[in-house]
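Handout, section B. The chain below has 334 residues.
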Amino acid sequence: MVIAVMLATAAGCSSGREGDTGGANDAGAPAAAEVATIDTGLRMAGVSASPDGRFAHAAGQDEIAVVDLTAAKTIDTIGYAPGPRQIRFSGDGSRAYVASGTINGGVGVIDTASRRLTGIIPVDGGPLYGLALAPDGLRGYSANSGAGAVVVDLKTRAVQAIPLPRGERGGVAMSPDGRYAYFTTDTSLAPRLPGPRSVNVLDTSGNTISATITVNAERPHEVAISPDGRRLYVAHFPSSQDTPNAVSLIDTAAGAITGTIPVKGRSTGLALSPDGRRLHVLDESGTLQTVETATGVVVTTVQVGSPTNGLALAPDGRKAYVAGDTTLHVINLG
């Protein structure tokens, strides 16, 4: 497969320098700057913001911190022994669902009003990393190395496994209409396993794999989908910080990579603005890069403390929340 590389590069932007704390730029992007830091007391592995924008839940090693974003402070912690990773809120914010990233994988259910873990839906086959919810909130989609893709009925707790190519799993994205779920598979850490680095497409109408899209770049990791469902963005985590990196752009109708967006560092977070005009890419050194999706240009960067491992946006897309070591960084995106 020939990958068409976009001509836009980070070097083409006046504010794309390492260590830049934001500000206006030649491309006309809004100002961006860190505006607050919130101590969670936890070494964070992920973060998610509630639908009303009032709270964030940050996953630690065996706890989840509840952060009041208005007061800018941690107000509670929820015990979660199986190693929480990615967190997703229900549409009404009454529940938070948690992918468990330990040997005993599962999907945890948190009652957000009482701030209590009400149960864990067990999933065989090893740890879960990514999690996506169907638009109607009735099903969760995740994946692990043993079972492959897993579909979890969040009411009945039934779990269905769908085989995927062998390899390590990463992010999960759901199309806006709920018709397709996208899973990354990586063989970089296990080169003896058969199968390409790929994005696997699950047709949710019959829970069957309808396509496997080969990804040539190393370690496909996080994924995000455009509001119209036509473009899928895939972030990568190469073996070395010095390896040139880029976000892969997939045309979902064609089922093929149509371009790449050069970015710095090894990506640990990916989020798309609600209107699809800005793609935010976090790397492990604490650099948040904002890409204008129409041009593929990195239009602004913000540097926070290292390491970082997780990114979430406010519902209106005007703030970003970056999970640092024990600090949640709040960034005003303008």
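Note. Residues 1-57+264-334 form one domain. Compare this with the example in section A.
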